[in-house]
Amino acid sequence: MSLHRVWSVTRKEIHHIIRDRATFLLVTLMPVLLLLLLAYAVTVDIKHVPVAVLDMDHSSVSRSLVQQITAGDDLDLFAQVNSPEEIEKLLLNGSIKAALVIHPAFARDLLALRGVRLEMMVDGTEPQSGGFAVEHIGQRAEDFIMQALAGQLVAQGMPVESLQPIDLRVRTWYNPGLKSSVDLVPGLISIVLGLPGLSIALTLAREREHGTLEQLLVTPVGRAELMVGKMLPYVISGLGYVIVTTLIALFWFQVPFRGNFPLYFVLSAIFLFAVLSMGMIVGVFIRTQAAALALSLLVIFFPGFFLTGIFFPLAAMPEMVREEALALPGTHYAIITRASFITGVGLDVLWPYGLALVGMGIGFTAIAAIFFKKKLR
Q1: For 112-137, what is the HEC assignment?
Q2: Residue of 339, 281, 334, 275 whose CA lies nearest to 307
Q3: Half-sphere exposure of 129 (CA within 13 A, CB side)
Q4: Which of 47, 252, 256, 372 is deepest in the core (most CB within 10 A)?
Q5: What tens digit of pLDDT does each residue of 241-256 get?
């Protein structure tokens, strides 16, 4: 293999990227725009859910309960209503997602150590917000009642331990706030870095469609040199976006990076090699840009959403689907990105995924090289 001939093809490809506006945008701006769009579209850190309260007790205890439930920025007290009909009206017009009903004698029953009665009404048309409100209202009401009963037990000389026979303490590792962005943004990086594979497929299809491959027929450039020369610009741009997307995740979305960045960078280069090889296969077999775009989306882009474990856990997939998912470079890279950002593990844990990407890259490149013909058909 001649480095001079490889560089000649690479230089030609760089000129094409600069001249072609669509390819330039796809290579330079689209990964960042796509990461920002997807991150804001799919992250579900719910806040400021509007709720209403119907307080039929009108006691200082019930008012304290309302204050504790609506403290913070998770739940917003939209209105304090006077009847169930007002709650129904607010639910119907979408002004609130849930309502808490405090029945009469709430304070008296609580202070008498009797069972207390609370009721919640939830908007089922938006289950995510409604479920969020139910969980937070229920947890805070339980905490409030436990604190009040503990005070009553102490006043009556009874041990507080009798109130809570089970001491359950939950500790969340790596993502204590359970922020969805911490989990999703690193996974989304594996999707947006698949764009170079789509770009190279379109480039090869464009050359076939416009007949520019004829110019290469009279040159001594070999198949391997031609393929490597075409891949290099996209590898370089992809590695640049490894740095850019990492900075966006760190400083824009406040996602911690706990791993070894040089290791992450090398594994990202291997992933780019694998996904570009997939794109090369598409470009080898497809002769028009429209068909190459459609097939690239089906083979490279869309599977990143459904089969790589970003939104649906691999363990929950049927065995056959899980095996198909493991045949995709994005599945292994999504594990690498999440592990590098969130848990900070090293090569001792990540080497199987890196090795799988190396195998895929070599296999896809071999397939592309076998079927790539430096002649027009």
Answers
A1: CCCCCCEEEEECCCCHHHHHHHHHHH
A2: 334
A3: 19
A4: 372
A5: 899 999 999 998 888 9
Q: Which helix (H) or strand (E) holds 324?
A: helix 319-326
Tell me how far apart the alpha carbons of residues 112 and 186 are, in angstroms, rounded to a whole number: 52
The arithmetic mean of pLDDT across residues 168-177, rounded, is 59
Is the whole model's pTM more than 0.90, yes or no? Answer: no
Distance CA 238, CA 235 (A): 5
Cα separation, 110 vs 141, whole angstroms: 12
**Strand 49-55, strand 98-102: pairing:** parallel
Half-sphere exposure of 199 (CA within 13 A, CB side): 31
Chain centroid to CA 345: how far?
A: 19
Strand order in the sheet with 98-102: 75-81, 49-55, 98-102, 118-122
Q: Is the pLDDT of residue 45 over 50?
A: yes
Sign of the torsion angle spanned by Cα atoms 203, 296, 37, 268: negative
- Surface-to-core class of residue 304, CB atoms within 10 Å of its CB (0-12 exposed, 13-18 middle, 19+ buried): buried
Which two tokens mark 38? Answer: 């997807």
More confident position, 304 or 273? 273
Question: Checking DSSP bridges between strand 49-55 and strand 75-81, what pairing results, if any?
Answer: parallel
- Cα–Cα distance between 69 and 81 in angstroms, integer? 16
Q: Which of 108-112, 242-246, 281-285, 343-347 has the highest mean pLDDT?
A: 242-246
Torsional class of 70: left (φ above 0), alpha (ψ -120 to 50), beta (otherwise): alpha
Residue 171 has pLDDT above 60, yes or no: no
Q: Which two tokens stand for residue 169?
A: 């303490």
Q: What is the pLDDT of residue 214?
A: 56
Residues linked to residue 50 through DSSP beta bridges, in sequence order: 76
316-373 pLDDT tens trace? 678 888 888 888 898 999 999 988 998 888 899 899 999 999 999 999 888 887 877 6
One-letter amino acid for residue 304 of the chain = G
**Angle (nearest 5°) at CA 202 between 199 and 204:** 110
- Among 62, 145, 149, 150, residue whose Cα is nearest residue 100: 62
